[in-house]
Amino acid sequence: MNVKRIFDFSALALEKFPKEDCLVTKKNGNWMKTSTMEFVNQGNKISRGLLKLGIKPGDKIGLITANNRTEWAIMDLGISQIGVVTVPVYPTISEEDYIYIFNNSEIKYCFVSDKDLYKKLTNAKAQIPSLVGVFTFDDVDGAPSWNEIMDLGENDLTQDEVDDLAKAINPEDVATIIYTSGTTGKPKGVPLTHNNLVSNVIASNPRVPKDKSLDYKDLKALSFLPICHVFERMIFYIYMSNGISLYFAESIEKIGENVKEVKPQYMTVVPRLVEKVYDSIYNKGTASGGIKSKIFLWSLGIAEKYEIGQPKTFMHTIADKLVFKKWREGLGGNLITLVSGSAALSKRLNVMFHAAGIPILEGYGLTETSPVISVNSFGKVKAGSVGIHLENLKVRIESDGEIVVKGPSVFEGYYQDEEKTKEAFTSDGYFKTGDIGMLDEDNFLFITDRKKEMFKTSGGKFIAPQVIENLAKASKFIEQIMVVGDGEKMPCALVQPDFAYAKNWADLHNVKVAESHKAIAADPAIKSRIEQEIEKINQHLGKWEQIKKIELTPKIWTIDDGLLTPTLKLKRKAIKSEFQDLYDRMYK
Predict the structure, then answer these.
(1) Does residue 152 share a domain with residue 278?
(2) Residues 6 or more apart from 472 whose CB is under 8 A from it?
(3) How far is residue 308's CA from residue 305's CA, in Å, rounded to a whole number?
(4) What domain range is 163 assigned to?
(5) Which residue would you say has higher pLDDT here, 164 or 451?
């Protein structure tokens, strides 16, 4: 069938890939399966129920869930196929941002996952005139349940009305408004049409590696990145259009447990997760000591020298049997690929995972581009790049190095903000990504930094902080780092140590330090050791961009504290504000 609207993917799945475990969520310790037929039927019930509630095409409905789950997908289908616009919102944003987003988009109803989010929304409801009601997926005392909408739509006598509305929806109609989390200022609403999303799925699909020996009924993906983010949402539609069952992970904390249970072929990741997986592998590999640790470290040397796409040497084959096989088993044993986005992935780690038989395909995109602009694919991979741009897009590099893009997946402008829309496009209609990059002779795209994050020291030298930060995070001692120095005489850095690793180092070297994060961050021996790590990094940098001073922060940077975005990017303004005393100490 011809897919033109996002809800057509479910019809395609039912026609070509019907399965018993289309969507799977773990509840009370059990993986609860929803078949493709049940998914479509329940989506229709939601559509009929919403129409009886008085919802009309063009209305806005909010969706907020603490963790990805089947109910979210059913709501997405039921809402979209009657011409209503979804507004997916991150669960971790402030009440102030909820109020702004709901008022800006004039949300009429909202569906939330649990009692905490219900309480958050009901507290804000008085300041949101458009909001009529809030429903919950979990059973919450005193809260209307989403099952009430399902019950309203139980009778299928009004299905013709749903079908007629679906037929009338144009691919150029807005399907969703996604508010960018941003690192400063108010969130910006990004309206994406059905065609924006569908065209991106269709153009990205050829890049998805497939094992022709596997039947679609055997294919599984594990989802844990926020589905309200356009990256995971677009990937959801790709899974649906390929008959890949989608298992929703319980949480990021349980991802290790869930991946062993599900044994997926596909997963999307962000670089921070890859780094954590590698750290766990490294710690286990070196903890046993003796000959086992020596074999493990020898295998790492083999992996670091691997050239992607080249056949394995005899020694590599031995390393695979002794070590890398265990890496794959730790990730379920069935992975075809990990797809990485959101931020730059370490080239070294990318090569090592490829060498271990766990290929990571790094890509690049933004909410405004629905999202994929470019992505590596099997047979066409360059570590350190984000691949070749999709065939239906035009990409060029401006004179200042900024990447600009044009094509069917690029949005038309920010919601109710003509000024920001005008600023976002070139005179000939290319979207300005805000990222600095280059295209090599083979048309592979390389991202070097965020244009807005680059800064100039008082000496007039430009600093690209992400490049330095990515080098630094290869150190076992450094969990997070933010390079600073805008308008200052030199670059410095705020460092969040890996507290557990730093404490272990201290114990091994007879450095007496308490368990608390504050004590570890304040210990001069630990700081001196991390400064040695920084000196190693400085050897790879120009004199003007070398980090001159560091301060260790006494707490973990988290999403909940507002120091990281939901996709684990640094919220630079918030981090500087949180640790202003440490910043000032470096520039005394």
Answers:
(1) no
(2) 478, 481, 493, 495, 533, 534, 537
(3) 10
(4) 8-262
(5) 164
Backbone φ/ψ region at 326: left (φ over 0), alpha (ψ -120 to 50), beta: alpha
47 and 177 housed in the same domain: yes
Q: Does 199 lie in the same domain as 52?
A: yes
Q: Where do the DSSP E strands lie in 166-211?
A: 174-180, 188-193
How do residues 119-149 score in pLDDT, each as one tens digit? 999 999 999 999 999 999 999 999 999 999 9
- 234 dihedral zone (left: phi>0; alpha: psi -120 to 50; beta): alpha
Contact 8, 24 (CB under 8 A): no
Nearest CA to 184 out of 524, 555, 452 is that of 452
Q: Which residues contact 514 (CB under 8 A, 6 or more apart)?
A: 520
Rounded to the nearest 10°, the torsion over CA 48, 112, 240, 342 is: 150
The residue written with tokens 């990205």 in the block is: 204
Residues 3/7/9/11 CA torsion (nearest 10 deg): -90
- 86 and 59 inside one domain: yes
Cα–Cα distance for residue pair 385/364, rounded to 1 Å: 9
Cα 329 to Cα 356: distance, rounded to the nearest angstrom: 11
- Domain endpoint, select from 262, 287, 318: 262
- Residues 377, 379, 384, 386: is their CA dihedral positive or negative? negative
3-state secondary structure of 478: strand
> What is the torsion angle, in degrees rounded to the nearest 10, for the CA atoms of residue 132, residue 134, residue 140 and residue 145?
90
Task: Assign residue 230 the CATH number of its domain.
Answer: 3.40.50.12780
Whether 433 and 477 map to the same domain: the answer is no
Query: What percent of the chain clears pLDDT 70, i.e. is strictly above it?
Result: 99
Q: What is the DSSP string of 233-270?
A: HHHHHHHHHTT-EEEEPS-STTHHHHHHHH--SEEEE-
Q: How many helices and strands in the chain, by DSSP H and E?
A: 22, 24
pLDDT at 346 over 70: yes
Residue 42 and residue 80 in one domain: yes
Q: DSSP 3-state assignment of 496?
A: strand
In a domain, 555, yes or no: yes
Among 362, 364, 382, smallest CA distance to 373 is for 364
Q: Is residue 2 part of a domain?
A: no
Reading the block at residue 505, the tokens are: 């180092």
3-state secondary structure of 187: coil
C-alpha distances in angstroms, 296 versus 271, 274, 334, 378, 477?
Answer: 23, 18, 22, 27, 20
End residue of a domain, out of 211, 233, 262: 262
What pLDDT digit, counting tens, does each position of 263-311 carry? 999 999 988 788 888 888 988 898 888 999 999 999 999 999 999 988 8
CA distances from 427 to 189, 421, 422, 491, 524 (A): 22, 12, 9, 35, 54
More confident site: 277 or 22: 22
d(CA 102, CA 2): 34
